[in-house]
UniProtKB/TrEMBL annotation:
PANTHER family: PHOSPHOTRANSFERASE SYSTEM TRANSPORT PROTEIN, PTS SYSTEM N-ACETYLMURAMIC ACID-SPECIFIC EIIBC COMPONENT. This is PTS system sucrose-specific IIC component. Residues 100-116 have a biased composition (Low complexity). Residues 6-89 form the PTS EIIB type-1 domain. Keywords: Cell membrane, Kinase, Membrane, Phosphotransferase system, Sugar transport, Transferase, Transmembrane, Transmembrane helix, Transport. It comes from the Bacteria. Its main location: membrane. InterPro entries: Glu_permease_IIB (IPR036878), PTrfase_EIIB_Cys (IPR018113), PTS_EIIC (IPR003352), PTS_EIIC_1 (IPR013013), PTS_IIB_1 (IPR001996), PTS_Sugar-Specific_Components (IPR050558). The chain crosses the membrane at residues 150-171, 183-201, 208-226, 232-254, 266-294, 306-329, 350-373, 385-406, 418-440, 460-481. GO terms for molecular function: kinase activity; protein-N(PI)-phosphohistidine-sugar phosphotransferase activity; protein-phosphocysteine-N-acetylmuramate phosphotransferase system transporter activity. It comes from Streptomyces echinatus. GO terms for cellular component: plasma membrane. Pfam families: PTS_EIIB, PTS_EIIC. Gene3D superfamilies: Glucose permease domain IIB.
């Protein structure tokens, strides 16, 4: 039975300190992402127990609640409504402890009795929770999460335009609907042509600047007129540096804007701050960032191709094995700039098909659990409901609902992903690259977007072989080594 989105939203908000404790609400394909003013006010254990919540990834003020595809959209809408209509918490009022009722003096003696002792104990508990959370929120993880926050809102457009690009490619190859393909090409390509602007807007929003100013500076990267600008003795090319240049330009714009806000007199702020914020980062972008980001992008593409052609099987094994832990930590979206850079350079990203093998290992592991634990009806029901999403490349329901709670099956799923990645990487060493023309789907949903240096037919064959390898190894490893003891049967009773 499907959980009511409004009830789920209410339960989630009650366990993160209430609507007033939420400062922003976003979501991706499977996760509700909340920024909390006071993380100590949230109760992670109680949040995990909410029906419909598959998992929680908490790091400082950034909380990700895994709800699964479909459900996340409805719950996010209900949470957004509750947050925007809730009265703000007074700045002087501390956040209530999760599950705490109204404050009362009952039981307090003249020496600061039971109520004061409980308050002090609650305060100590909150401090311990916050220390543990800060220890987990390392600067590196925090930086990756902020980069991910820039790109997560772009995922729906990336998926939609990617699917259309794949459909358009199929029509072109088949020679069908020649009157429609130019229109489909324009619709599918327009977003990618201007993605730098959207990256600039989201970067400024994430780092505390004015979104439209971040977009204005990032737009310099893709403006055709930059071809007339000479930097380091060469003419710039529109789009040089891609999303990396746009990200750096917009981040610089937020720093300049904040510097101006604290120094420009109020009467001149409306004129000078936007002008300086666009001018200074714009010049730095033209005469430094675009060239530098272009060099980094070129090096990224060269390194990826070298890695696959020389150590393809090993590289595929490592990438396939490590991707599920990245998904578990919510850091996988930080790879989007690398995919976008590779697509901009060579028309496809060779990393996405390799990473997609992790999902194949997860599916194989889930099937093995389904077979071995045939008397565990609730778990088998969870697997049946989550498996279709897993086959389409959405792994969180299987991760948080099946393999991670069981422990060993998560590791054996990683083994399946490693085997699939090694399979695809091995063929890259032999000269057959497999790439995806767009970012977003994986699993079976990636087939329409596949291409490579030997055409889509070879890419589909290698990718399909990798999926089958991931399924098989994930299943076998989990069936043989995924359990510490033999599953109980009715004969054991």
């Amino acid at each position: 039975m499907r959980n009511d989105p409004a009830s789920t939203a209410t339960a989630v908000l009650a366990r993160v300190g209430g609507p007033a404790n939420v400062t922003s609400v976003t979501h991706c394909m499977t996760r509700l992402r909340l920024a909390l003013a006071d993380p100590a006010a949230a109760d992670e254990r109680a949040l995990r127990a909410v029906p419909g919540v598959l998992g929680v990834v908490a790091a400082g003020t950034d909380w990700q609640i895994v709800l699964g595809p479909g459900a996340v959209d409805a719950v996010t809408a209900a949470v957004t409504t509750a947050v925007t209509t809730a009265p703000a918490r007074p700045a002087s009022a501390p956040a209530p402890a999760p599950g705490a009722g109204p404050a009362t003096d009952s039981g307090a003696g003249p020496d600061g009795g039971t109520a004061d002792q409980e308050a002090r104990a609650a305060g100590q508990g909150a401090l311990v929770k916050e220390r543990l959370r800060r220890r987990d929120a390392t600067p590196f993880k925090a930086a990756l999460r902020r980069v991910a926050n820039v790109f997560v809102p772009l995922i729906p457009a990336l998926i939609g335009c990617g699917i259309l690009a794949g459909l358009n490619g199929l029509l072109l190859n088949a020679g069908l609907l020649p009157g429609l393909t130019p229109a489909l090409s324009a619709i599918a390509s327009a977003f990618m042509a201007l993605i730098a602007v959207f990256v600039g807007v989201n970067t400024a929003k994430e780092f505390g600047g004015t979104p439209v100013l971040g977009g204005a500076v990032a737009a310099v990267v893709v403006y055709p007129g930059v071809a007339k600008v000479t930097a380091f003795g060469v003419h710039l090319a529109p789009g040089q540096g891609g999303v990396l240049g746009a990200l750096a330009a917009a981040f610089l714009a937020t720093r300049v804007e904040k510097w101006c806000r604290g120094r420009v007199p109020g009467a001149l702020d409306v004129l000078l701050t936007p002008t300086v914020t666009v001018l200074v980062p714009g010049l730095v972008t033209l005469y430094g960032l675009m060239y530098a980001a272009g060099a980094v992008a070129t090096a990224t593409g060269t390194a990826a191709n070298w890695l696959l052609t020389t150590t393809g099987a090993v590289a595929g094994l490592v990438l396939g094995a490590l991707f599920l832990p990245l998904v578990m930590l919510g850091l996988h979206q930080a790879l989007i700039p690398l995919h976008a850079t590779l697509i901009d350079q060579q028309g496809y990203t060779v990393l996405l098909p390799l990473l997609a093998m992790a999902g194949a290992g997860q599916v194989g592991a889930a099937l093995a659990v389904y077979v071995r634990l045939r008397h565990d009806v609730p778990l088998r029901t969870t697997i049946r409901s989550a498996l279709p999403a897993g086959l389409l490349g959405v792994g969180e329901p299987l991760i948080y609902g099946v393999s991670l709670p069981l422990g060993r099956p998560f590791l054996t799923a990683c083994a399946g992903g490693a085997a699939g990645g090694a399979f695809v990487g091995f063929f890259a060493m032999l000269g057959t690259e497999v790439g995806a023309t767009a970012i977003g789907p994986s699993g079976w949903a990636l087939f329409p977007l596949l291409t490579g240096n030997r055409g889509p037919g070879a890419a589909v064959a290698v990718y399909g072989g990798g999926l089958l390898t991931g399924y098989a190894v994930g299943f076998a490893a989990t069936y043989l080594f995924g359990f510490t003891h033999r599953p109980r049967t009715p004969a054991d009773a």
